[in-house]
């Protein structure tokens, strides 16, 4: 993962960027995915993008072995997911809001990040630094502030890895396809990936910077 250019006053620079969309819904073509695809459709045509559906992967439950002697991942799916993650300059977490947080599939994927931090030779933290983390979520509530817990989790994760954070695109949708009726969300999707993504900071770092 390499540091993305801050772009120009006329818009972001998409050269040498590649997007990984990580789908965490328990159903295909969910509202979060529909919203993410609407945003992805506005990327320049030559920008590489890859879609990974966690619900279709043969990925074991995460086992925390951070304090044990461990080697590279032995499970083929985990190895492929690790490489896809570190090779992208922009990682987009696409998860519906379940109980004001991520879906189980999404949380399991992010838990694997903890293990990858200690994989010999992976340099996971160093390779993620400078990249950009984004989020897309659909929720049943019309007041999107209820997704703040998910937003905070992603922002703090980006801060820990010294990534940029592009924010979270939110939309209202519970029944299949309902998010298409959220005109505000669909409008925001058109420019979501074209906005500046600042370096993520923990809340205490933001306070210190402001002071």
What does this structure look like?
- It is a single chain.
- This protein is an alpha/beta fold.
- The chain is built from seven helices and five strands; from the N terminus they run βαβαβααβαβαα.
- Strands 2-1-3-4-5 form a five-stranded parallel beta sheet, sandwiched between helices.
- Helix 1 (31-40) runs parallel beside helix 6 (183-191).
- Residues 2-10 have low confidence and may be disordered.
What would you say about this model in short?
It is built from 7 helices and 5 strands, in the order βαβαβααβαβαα. With 211 residues, the protein is α/β, with parallel strands linked by helices.
List keywords for this structure.
211 residues, alpha/beta, five-stranded parallel β-sheet, 7 helices, globular, disordered N terminus
Provide the fold topology.
Blueprint lengths: L18 E5 L7 H10 L8 E5 L22 H12 L2 E5 L9 H13 L7 H5 L3 E8 L8 H13 L3 E9 L10 H9 L11 H8 L1
Parallel strand pairs: 1-2, 1-3, 3-4, 4-5
Helix pairs in contact: 1-6
Q: How many individual helices?
A: 7
Question: How are the strands of the biggest sheet laid out side by side?
Answer: 2-1-3-4-5
Following the backbone from N to C, one meets helices and strands in this order, namely EHEHEHHEHEHH
Helix % is 25-40%
Terminus-to-terminus distance: 31 Å
| β-sheet strand percentage | 15-25%
Major sheet attributes: 5 strands, parallel
Q: Please state the average pLDDT score.
A: 90
């Amino acid at each position: 993962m390499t540091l993305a250019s801050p772009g120009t006053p006329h818009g972001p620079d998409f050269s040498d960027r590649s997007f990984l969309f990580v789908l965490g819904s328990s159903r295909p073509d969910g509202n979060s995915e529909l919203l993410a695809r609407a945003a992805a459709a506005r990327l320049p045509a030559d920008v590489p993008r890859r879609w990974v559906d966690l619900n279709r992967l043969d990925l074991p439950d995460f086992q925390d072995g951070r304090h044990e002697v461990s080697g590279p991942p032995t499970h083929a799916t985990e190895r492929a997911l690790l490489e896809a993650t570190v090779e992208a300059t922009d990682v987009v977490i696409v998860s519906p809001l379940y109980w004001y947080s991520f879906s189980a599939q999404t949380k399991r994927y992010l838990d694997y990040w903890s293990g990858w931090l200690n994989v010999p030779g992976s340099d996971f933290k160093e390779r993620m630094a400078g990249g950009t983390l984004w989020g897309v979520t659909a929720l049943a509530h019309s007041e999107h502030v209820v997704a703040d817990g998910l937003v905070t989790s992603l922002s703090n994760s980006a801060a820990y890895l010294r990534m940029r954070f592009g924010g979270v695109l939110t939309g209202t949708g519970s029944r299949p396809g309902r998010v298409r009726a959220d005109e505000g969300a669909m409008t925001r999707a058109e420019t979501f990936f074209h906005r500046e993504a600042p370096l993520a900071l923990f809340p205490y770092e933001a306070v210190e910077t402001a002071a």
